[in-house]
Design a protein that fits this description.
The protein is about 10% helix and about 30% strand. The chain has about 130 residues and is mainly beta. The two termini are about 25 Å apart.
Length: about 130
Amino acid sequence: MSGKIVKSDAEWRTQLTRDQYRVTRRKGTERAFTGEHWDEHRAGTYRCVCCGAPLFDAATKFDSGTGWPSFYAPIEKSRVAENDDRTLFMRRTEVTCAACDAHLGHVFPDGPEPTGLRYCLNSAALTFEPAE
C-alpha cells in the first residue's frame, strides 16, 4: 500500500454524506439494524467509503445478530489498522482503514472460526461492490 490518503476536513465533508462523515471522520456509529449492508448476502467486496480501498470479502461476512455488518477477517491484515479505544467507559479495539484512517467500527474476540474475531463495522463506512 502506498502513502496515506490525507484530505482536509472540508474535502471530506464535500465528498461524504453527513452520516458517512459523522461515522468515518468523527468516529460515530449507526444504530443497529439500520445500515445499508447489515443484511447484504451477495458475493462481493466491501470497500472503504472514503478512499475506495478493498477491505473485506463478502465470503468472510457472517450474521452476528448484532445488526451491523460483521466479518471474521479483512482481505489482508494490512488493509486495516487497530487502535485502543477507551471511550464510553469501555475498552475496545477500534478498526480504521489503513489507507485513509477512516473509522470503520470495532473488532471483538467473539467471532467464528477460523479467526475467532468479529469485525463489527458501520455500513456508512463501507461501499459494496457485488461480484460479477
